[in-house]
């Protein structure tokens, strides 16, 4: 996530930074879908057919629903940790990109 936000903050340069930003934009939903899939197997949760692909494309909606279905209100801690890491990566990218953006 930090690579994608840093790429946007620096004005979307081409080349290797663009490739890293593209990879970062796919790695976040892929890692969330893989975590949901592994967690569902570990908890013996009967997920619908092709649930992994659906989570990949709709992760902002389906991942919290899955966490609440499997953990109940205890899932707030997992979601809170994700939100903290998500916004920390954005803040990190902005702090790393700021010096490069103000250079003449």
Q: Name the helicity range.
A: over 70%
Unreliable segments of 5+ consecutive residues: none
> What does the oligomeric state look like here?
single chain
How many structural domains?
Answer: 1
- The number of helices is 5
Q: In percent terms, what proportion of residues is strand?
A: under 5%
Spatial separation of the terminal alpha carbons: 27 Å
Give a short account of the largest sheet.
Answer: none
**Could you tell me the number of beta strands?**
0
Cα shape: elongated
Structural class: mainly alpha
* Elements, N to C (H/E): HHHHH
Alpha-carbon Rg, integer: 17 Å
Mean pLDDT: 79
Write up what this structure looks like.
The protein has five helices and no strands. The chain starts with a helix and ends with a helix. Helix content is 79%, strand content 0%. The mean pLDDT is 79. The protein has 104 residues and is mainly alpha-helical. It has one domain (2-101). The radius of gyration is 17 Å and the shape is elongated. The chain has helices spanning 2-9, 16-42, 51-57, 59-71, 75-101. Helix 3 (51-57) crosses helix 4 (59-71).
């Amino acid at each position: 996530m930090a690579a994608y936000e840093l790429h946007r903050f620096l004005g979307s340069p081409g080349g290797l930074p663009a490739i890293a930003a593209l990879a970062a934009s796919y790695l976040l939903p892929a890692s969330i879908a893989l975590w949901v899939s592994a967690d569902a197997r570990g908890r013996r949760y009967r997920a619908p057919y092709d649930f992994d692909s659906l989570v990949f494309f709709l992760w902002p909606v389906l991942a919290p629903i899955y966490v609440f279905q499997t953990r109940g209100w205890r899932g707030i801690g997992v979601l809170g940790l994700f939100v903290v890491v998500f916004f920390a990566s954005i803040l990190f990218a902005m702090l790393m990109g700021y010096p490069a953006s103000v250079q003449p």
